[in-house]
Amino acid sequence: MVAAAFGAAAPDAARPPAVIAPGVSVSGVGVGGLTSEPARARLRRAFIRPLEFAHAGKRWQAPPHRFGAHWWVNGAISRALKARPAKPVELGVSYWQKKVDRYVERLARRFFVPPEDAALAGLAGDGRPVITPERAGRRVAKELLSGAIAHALHTPTRAPLRLPMKPVAPSRTRANFGPVVVIARESKRLTLYDETSPVRSFPVATGQASYPTPLGTWSIATMQRDPWWIPPPDSDWAQGAKPIPPGPGNPLGTRWMGLTAPLVGIHGTPDSESIGYSASHGCIRMHIPDADWLFDQVDIGTPVVIVAA
């Protein structure tokens, strides 16, 4: 009986470990001819390597655990042991989508290139506006990058993932820059340009010597039809004055285009005799019909360049 017992147990103890059939692969990693432990080690080495990224001459890596990645190696090895020769087997992979999204958002912020709008750079020698060209920006295509990371986690390939980028259009181009107002303080002329092409020119009144119209590049900040005239605070020349409602006697006429220069604006005036002179307290006065027309051609944000000549 003892001999029979040893005789029955000996074949099981000597049984060789199961070998995966030739040509079998797990998600692209060849494991044919291997037993379970070497196959398991090969899969782990292949998939645990960090993901690689490349953009704009920079390269960096991110370990898979950053995305909460987990590979179901034991189940894949079990299926590989049962697979026929040359049969591919899929490796189950899981990861946290929120972690992928957070990483993608971080890269999107890091590599965002904002667009540059066309901008007023000054005036040319002939007084025409000089407008710099626009430049498109670039942003990370987050959906595409998220999908590329997910695909990389499912494969042993660790070729650099190049960030997919999309253009970001500027909001203002040189072709649609719009109106520009140029005021020659000493010449008492206001000229409206469409981009760089002159449209109309008007005589104006500018500030007195003691209240000069400020030079520089400003923009229209407020626009009012039939405005009230409100005495400027802390102004010695307006001490004791009271607000004036809209109407024929309003010193602002029927239109007010306030500039980013403090207490300065372009407006109509009932005092037509002042046009062509340095007569205001810093504002730019126009004939009322001219101010009405200009009001309809400009917008809040329209640049206003005031030069000395």
Highlighted features:
309 residues; 6 helices; single chain; disordered N terminus; 3-stranded mixed sheet; alpha/beta; 23% helix
Task: Please sum up the structure shown.
By secondary structure, the chain is α/β, with parallel strands linked by helices. The chain is built from six helices and 22 strands.
Structure commentary:
This protein is of the alpha/beta class. It is built from 6 helices and 22 strands. The chain has helices spanning 2-13, 36-48, 73-82, 97-110, 142-154, 288-295, and strands at 25-26, 29-30, 51-55, 58-62, 70-72, 88-89, 92-94, 119-123, 129-132, 137-140, 161-162, 165-168, 179-184, 189-194, 197-203, 206-207, 216-225, 255-259, 265-269, 278-280, 284-287, 303-307. The chain has an 8-stranded mixed β-sheet with strand order 15-14-13-22-17-18-19-21, with helices on one face. A 3-stranded mixed β-sheet has the order 2-1-6. A hairpin with a 5-residue loop joins strand 8 (119-123) and strand 9. It is rod-shaped, with a radius of gyration of 38 Å. Mean pLDDT is 93; it is low at 1-9.
